[in-house]
Design goal:
heterodimer, A: 401 residues, alpha/beta, Peroxisomal Thiolase, Chain A, domain 1, two-stranded antiparallel ribbon, 18% strand, B: 132 residues, mainly beta, 6-stranded mixed beta sheet, 4-stranded antiparallel beta sheet, 10 strands
Chain lengths: 401, 132
Amino acid sequence: MGDAVWVLGANMTKFGRYPGMDSIDLASQAALAALADGGVTIHDMGVMAAGTLNEVASGPGQRLQKQIGQTGIPVYNVANACATGATALRTVYLTIKAGEADMGLAVGWEKMGKMGLLGAGGKGDRDRKVYEPSGRYGSVMQVEGILGTGLMPGVFAQAGMEYAYEHGGVGFEQFAKVAEKNHEHSTLNPLAQYQKAFTLDQVMGAEMMSYPNTVLMCCPTGDGAAAAVLVSEEKLKTLSDEQRRRAVRVSASVLTSDPWTERDQVQPDVNTLTREAADKAYEISGVDPQDLDLVELHDCFATAELVHYDNLRLCAPGEAGRFIDERGPWRDGTIPVNVSGGLISKGHPLGATGIANVYEVTTHLRGEAGDRQVPDAKVGLTHVIGLGSACGIHVLEKATI
Amino acid sequence: MAKQIPIVDYLVIGDGEPHLEAWESVDSGALYLDRRNADAKSGGTEFRRRRLESTGTVRSFTIVHRGVPGVPVPYVSALVDLDGGGVVKSNLTGCDPTPEAVSLGMKVKMTTFVAGTDDDGTEAVAFAFEPA
C-alpha cells in the first residue's frame, strides 16, 4: 500500500432543490468545503475532475475554476451516466497513481430540478407524420410503451423481477422492505433530500409507478454536489497529524463496463459488471465482503438495491430476499446498507452521487457521522452504476499512517 | 387494405406469418435486433439474417402505471426468452395488467397489431406477446 491514494477531504451539499442557485454555486460550495475539510486550498491541487452529466459539453470544470481558482492545472470533464461522480473520482485517483500529481480534487454535481421520468428518448412528433424507417432498428415511430418500456422505473423493475424469476424468495414485499429501510435510515441524515419514515404498508400502498416499484421505491430527481480531495501517501506523510488522522485510505478503485450477454442487448444488465467490479475490488483490497462495516450502493430503485446484495456478495448467492427479510442490511444488521438513506431518500443528483457516497463512508470511517454513525466502522464500500453501462466501486478503509 | 410498414425492421410482415428476424454473427451465433458494425461478443464482422421463433417464456416483466404522454396505462412490459434463442422486449397483451394475471415463466406467443397510421394512410404494424 506504499503508493496508496487517500481521501484527505470530503463534503457534500444537502441534496434537494435549489431554484435560487445555479449548478456552479452548488459545485463551488461542495468543492470549497472539501478543500477546507482537508486543510488545503485549490493552489495545492495538481489535477481536477468535474463530473456532471447534463452539462458536460459546457466546460463545467473550467466554469467551476472561474469561481474557486484558476491555477492552470489539467481539468477533466467527465460523463459516465450515473457512474459519473465515481469516474471523476477515479480520474483523480489514476492521475495520482501515475505520479502526475500528488493531490487532486474531484467534484460531482447535477441540477435536475423536477425532471420527471428519465429514459424515454426516441422520436418526437413531427409536423407532418410520414413513417420512414430510421436508426439502427429501422423504427418508424417512438416505441416507448409499444415495444415494452425503457423508462427507468420499469427497466429496474424488470431487473428486479428477473432476479425473482431466477432465484425465488423475492416479491413485491421484499422490494418494498428495501425502501422502508432506506426511508427510515434517512431520518438520521440531515443532508438527505427527504427525511421521512414510512411503514411497509405505506410503501406498498403508495402510487404504483412501474410494478413492483411504487413512488416511494423510486429515487427523486434533485440538485446537489459532492467533492473529495485525494492525496498520495507520500504527500500525506508530510501533512499534519490532524490531516493524517482523518485521512481515509482508498484500498480499491474499480471501473467496469458491461460484458456481452445475450439479454444485455435488449435491456442493460446491471448484474454482470457489478459482479466483476466487486470481485476485482475485493481482490485488490484484500477485503472480504463479510468484513464490510457499511455499504453505500446504487439504490436508484428498490428493485435495484435488492439485486446488488447478491452482486456485491453481501449475501449468499440467490439469498437476497432472505437477507432483507432477516434485516441484514438495516443499520443494526450484519452489513448496514445505505445508512445515508440511499438514492431513494437521500436523493440522486446524477453526477454528485458517486462522490456523495464516498463522503458518506469517509464520514463514518472518521467517526464523524453523528446520529447515524455506524459504530466502530473501519471499512466500507461505495457502488454506483450508470446504465449503458458503467459500474464504479471504491473500497475505503480507516488506517493509520 | 391500407399500406403497412413494420414499426421496426426486425419485425417481418408481408412474407407469410409475421415473425422476428435478427442479425446472427457468423462467428459466435450471437443475435442482434439492431444493425451492428461488428459482433460485440466475438468481434467478427460477418452477419446473416436469422428467423426467430414466435413463442417464448417471460423471464421478467413490469406493469407500467406512469408512462409517456399518449401511451395508455397500465400496460405490461416483458422480457421474453424466445424458444430457439434470442431475447426480445415487448408489451404483453391478452391478459389483465395485474400481478395476478401475469407470471414469471409464463409461456407466450407473438401477435401483431396496428400501432398508428401516418398522414399518407400507412399503418405501422407492431408486435406484442400474449399468453400461449
